[in-house]
Amino acid sequence: MHRNTRIILGITGGIAAYKSPDLVRRLIERGAEVRVVMSRAAMEFITPLTLQAVSGHPVHQHLLDSDAESGMGHIELARWAEIILIAPATAHFMAKIVHGEADDLLSALVVASEATLAIAPAMNRQMWQNPATRHNLKTLVDRGVSIIGPGEGDQACGEVGVGRMTEPDEIAQQLLGDGIPQLFSGKKILVTAGPTWEAIDPVRGISNRSSGKMGFAIARAARDFGATVTMVRGPVNTTPPSGVECIGVQSARQMRDAVMSRVSGTDIFIGVAAVADYRPALQEDQKIKAKEPEIVLKLIKNPDILAEVAAREDRPFTVGFAAETRDLLANAKKKLWDKKIDVIVANDVSGEDGAIDNDTNAASLIHQTGVVQLERADKYRLAISILEKISVLMNPEPSTA
Ligand code: C5P
To answer: What is the per-residue pLDDT across 131-144, written as a single tens digit (0 to 9) for each?
Structure first.
């Protein structure tokens, strides 16, 4: 798929419709042009105004609407689309398109358009298992309709099973993944993410506030750029991106071992994890009883994973992150030199807008010969910018001088 792909997003009446604004954003992020068409039932779950705001275009709702027909009428809309994506697609809507019904705008568009049709079903697990739905699904697959999901998990109705709509970003990825230039095709990228947990005793420990979001975003973006991605992550609750090999660890030493056993043959190492610099010198086997008025905790230095990777003879292109609360650039530059790495991405973690546990982030990317300011953006967008810059630094344009 190429950029500027023209997509009609058809929203039908399932609870997952509340995720549609996010889906519109994810599609636009990947360079698509999106027009939204809603079924009547979809409007019970989310308002057209919201979708108009995120898509930047009026939402189409009615088949026989003289205003809409004088703008982009339904036949024009059907011709305009390169892809019609129905998300969420209810059991009812699947049945409708199997039968070629065309009694509302969305179903009429499906019948009238030559566009590629993709559906992301979302329904209660019993409805998904129902023989009629199975039959309809088979018919649609036989007709070449792309089926995205559904996934398994908690459902809005309180049940657990298959029927959850695939997450918006994943839908956009499946639909437009190839739209992103495959800058790192054939490359192996190893990423660390999240905090580490340094045990004091079986129930207590030292950690930090890293959410893992930036590391996960880097792993996702690297995957989308075509790399084979392995992520070693400390204790976080976030679901890992699909298509990324993910190794869960607790302590810095475990993270070090997991990284060192995988780093050989890696093209790029990106240390995003907030690795604890120190760990308790002693770890008690049993829970420490709170009977003393004070106890002294001795801390010793953890291995520096990033520096160790950078010191290898077969070192990959090595990228670190620096979280600072003051003198951001000076401190980050010092780290670049001390750890002998290729790039450091410096984040300001002070104040409310700081990087930690935020969905957005701004950063300065420092390399051996310069600094690039990266504007505040959501962490995925920022990850895309960071990886684009890394690609340029790894493949400098031949000098014309
Ligand atoms: O020195 P500082 O901890 O601020 O450096 C941060 C960078 O170094 C991050 O990229 C982090 O992943 C990495 N690091 C590491 N091992 C440590 C400490 C930090 O890999 N023990």
So the answer is: 999 999 999 988 87
| Atom 5 (ligand 1) nearest CA | 322
Domain architecture of the chain: domains with CATH = 6-176 (3.40.50.1950), 188-394 (3.40.50.10300)
pLDDT for residue 2: 37
Question: Which residues does the chain have with pLDDT short of 50?
Answer: 1-3, 401
Angle of CA points 95, 99, 100, to nearest 5° = 115
Which pLDDT does position 38 carry in this prediction?
97
Exactly one of 43, 63, 147, 157 is catalytic; which is it?
Answer: 157
Task: Give the closest residue to 152 by CA, choosing from 141, 166, 168, 138.
Answer: 166
Query: pLDDT at position 363, please?
Result: 92
Distance CA 113, CA 125 (A): 30
CA 3 to ligand 1 centroid distance, Å = 37
Atom of ligand 1 nearest to the CA of 306: 20
Q: What is the pLDDT of residue 144?
A: 79
Alpha-carbon gap, residue 38 to 27, rounded angstroms? 17
Nearest ligand 1 atom to the CA of 323 is 4
- What is the per-residue DSSP string for 375-397? EEEEHHHHHHHHHHHHHHHHSPP
User: From ligand 1's centre to the CA of 260, what distance in Å?
Assistant: 15
For residue 170, how far is the Cα from the chain centroid?
Answer: 8
In angstroms, what is the span from residue 192 Cα to ligand 1's centroid?
A: 10
Work out the angle between the directed axes of helices 91-98 and 105-112 (0-180°, nearest 10): 40
> What per-residue confidence (pLDDT) applies to 57?
93
pLDDT of residue 5: 72
Distance from Cα 35 to the centre of ligand 1, integer Å? 44
Q: Is 246 an annotated catalytic residue?
A: no
- Residue environment code for 321-350, b if the CB has 16+ CB neighbours within 10 A, otherwise e: bbbbeeebeeebbebbeebebbbbbbbbbe
Contact residues of ligand 1, CB 6 A cut-off? 192, 252, 271, 273, 275, 277, 302-306, 320-322, 335
